[in-house]
Specification:
Radius of gyration: 16 Å
Mean pLDDT: 98
Strand content: 25-35%
Largest sheet: 7 strands, mixed
Structural class: alpha/beta
Number of helices: 4
Low-confidence stretches: none
CATH class: Alpha Beta
Distance between the termini: 6 Å
CATH architecture: 4-Layer Sandwich
Shape: globular
Length: about 210
Amino acid sequence: MRITKLEHAALVVEDSGDKLYIDPGKFTTPITESSGAVAVVITHQHDDHWTPEQLTRIREANPDVRIFGPAGVAAAAADFPVETVQSGDVVAVGPFRLRFFGGRHAVIHPSIPVIDNLGVLVNDALYYGGDSFTVPGVPVEVLAAPAGAPWMKISEAMDYVVEVAPRRAFPTHEMVLSRAGKALSNARLAWATEQGGGEYVPLEPGETLDF
């Protein structure tokens, strides 16, 4: 499989010519070349993780693409055929096996309601928690590690990476950071990954990782 990191929180995973998109939101360059997409996973309803425009582009190129998300996503994206999933569900689509974990977004502030959020494990290898620090409790080969967000501080992300102990990790959710901020978070997340004997790969948008 190959992961291509897109801007902010978006990823595309390719296997055997098929593609899986995860969290194509408003901080991600418009996705115009999505031929071969069999599925889209949206971890939660915030628009930095999905927009109607991004989903429409993907569906126009791939009319049979399946879209998965928690109940909050299904409600927010009611104009799209979202298949509702919850923690513990396992779905097979094309060459991808999707396992879902968690259920709730990390707390941003007590004044802001906590919404649905699901982490996803792809082919028992790649784990992406969305906007949460949900630990899947299973071996993780590649972890998409959050680098910066209103709902986190870097010490929490470091503890999360240490607990997951992936073989490899790369940054996600970092469009809110300056170049200096990205360098700082990369250094901290690299340290955390190395505590479990793993390798940190500071991917930039458009760069890939094979696994």
